[in-house]
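Quick illustration, no need to memorize.
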Amino acid sequence: MSKRKQPTPAQQAAFYLQEHFRSITGVVLAGLLGAAVLLGIQWLQDPYRFPLRIVKVAGDYRHLDRERLQAVVAPYVEGGFFGVDVAGLCRKVEQLPWVYKATVARSWPDGLTLSIEEQEPVVRWGERAYLNRFGEAFYPKVTPELAHLPMISGPEGHELAVLEKYRRLSAALAPLGLTVARVHLDERRAWRLEMDNGLQLELGRADTWPRLQRFVNAWPTIFADRSDELRHVDLRYSNGFSVFRQAAGEPVANSKNPKG
């Protein structure tokens, strides 16, 4: 068998230089390619090459301040068609108190469409905020045209729980012809209701639904005929309730002391 011929030192040096040259060439080409891509991106993002000329705002909204919205959008559209920060624009618009959700779409070659879903207030949350249908609070400027909305209140972080309680209470009292105008959960976790006719119900902390059912059951025989005189019903008793009527001015029915 013939022995394999070993490369000479000169051949080894030539091979090393060839491989080294290939590595350098690869690095240079990669660098040139990266620079070309970077320059291409910068060229596309140049607002003078692809300026935005048409900005549309889509959506059905009644309360959103158009001038304030324009002030938020203006700095972003200066970036041009490719340079506009779509995600940043959405985040900024969604910080406006009347905006629930915002989406942005480019329209080639010079358009931008901003779609807005406005907050839908279902109740007032205290004196300074509203809740949407998901129980999320938002804090726009209070407007008189929404003064008709029911007001619910409670400790911070209990917005959804109080909203759900309001819905259940409203459904239970509606067959009696009573409309809940206010629901309050205090720091002791006691519930108090007020109807749109001024009638107040004290439910306390425990057994709120059995207590409310007791009131509902008693309504036809005890309250219905003189409902216009009712001002306050305290249901925080084990087996009964106390009633305050405007005409008499005194409690007409009592049981043991309220349990809370």
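Residues 123-245 form a domain with the Rossmann fold fold (CATH 3.40.50.11690).
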